[in-house]
Amino acid sequence: MSKAVMLSIRPKWVEKIANGEKTIEVRKTRPKLDTPFKCYIYCTLQGCNEFFRVDLGGDVAKWNRGKWADRKGKIIGEFTCDRIYELETKARGGSYYVKGEDWLTACEGAQQSCLTLKDMHDYLHAQTGYGWHITDLRIYDAPKCLLNFGRKGFADASQASSGAENVAIAISARRRVGAMWRRWKMFELKSCPFCGGKVSLVLCDDEGNLHDVAYRERSYSGLGFMLHHAYEENPGCPIASYECDGGILGGVHIYDTEEQAAEAWNRRTENG
């Protein structure tokens, strides 16, 4: 396998993949790659608080046993995707089926994805989806930092996984940890009315995971835009967000286009 993809997955689902409970990852799109291909698992920062409160019940001991402080915001493992199922539904709210296969296969697929029917519809909105089958799962003893990852795999040979010597990443989720994001600057944004600081646009996927500008070219996990205004760059600003939370204004509000994001931010009381 000479090509690989990186999947941004929230902690709730990372845990289920890591313990073998989840063997199908449902996505809205699929890469233009023939199976099998390698997938790297990136555990997102988004969803960590909810995972701790809801899934772990706020249990600090469980959080520590799972080493989630080390896992979040890092690549925690890899797997081989040996097959992709095309998922479809005949009616809104109806069952999802594996295209060309029977109802039993669909039920088994739903169980392997750990998703309820409501989960499927909330995510896919009655549109076609894709079930990525997980095999040859490998969870790293020590999660790996995105800073050490590039288009040829892990830069540090001591961190390299087998076959990573010529990995062409189809999806780049690389970010600068503790520093400024690489930003997509296309539309002029007004200064912050509270602190006078700069606001910028950042690229994200459908789940709100941030990406660099290269992702725009091959955005098969969906493409959206968010507004970035970090507290570290604008200390004292009442609406700024810390970089550890993504530095995103207004929580995780995703806009479909740059125009929408710019229009929403540039709107002021004097112009409606």
Please characterize this protein's 3D structure.
Strands 1, 2, 3, 4, 5, 6 and 9 form a 7-stranded mixed β-sheet that branches. The chain has a 3-stranded antiparallel β-sheet with strand order 11-10-12, covered by helices on one side. It is globular. Residues 155-186 have low confidence and may be disordered. The longest helix has 11 residues, at 103-113. It has 7 helices and 12 strands. The chain has 2 domains: 3-169, Hypothetical protein (Archaeosine Trna-guanine Transglycosylase, Chain: A, domain 4), CATH 2.30.130.30; 200-271, no CATH class. The chain has 272 residues and is α+β, with helices and mostly antiparallel strands.
The chain-level mean pLDDT equals: 75
Distance between the termini: 54 Å
Give the DSSP E fraction (strand runs of 2 or more residues): 25-35%
- Radius of gyration, Cα only, in angstroms? 20 Å
Percent of residues in helices comes to: 10-25%
Which CATH architecture of the largest domain is right?
Roll
Annotated CATH topology of the largest domain = Archaeosine Trna-guanine Transglycosylase, Chain: A, domain 4
Structural class based on helices, strands and sheet pairing? alpha+beta
So what's the CATH class of the largest domain?
A: Mainly Beta
Strand segment count:
12
Order of helices and strands: EHEEHHHEEHHEEEEEEEH
Overall shape: it is globular
Number of domains: 2
In terms of per-residue confidence, which ranges show pLDDT below 50 for 5 or more consecutive residues?
Answer: 155-186
Mind telling me the CATH superfamily name of the largest domain? Hypothetical protein
- Biggest beta sheet summary: 7 strands, mixed
Number of helices: 7
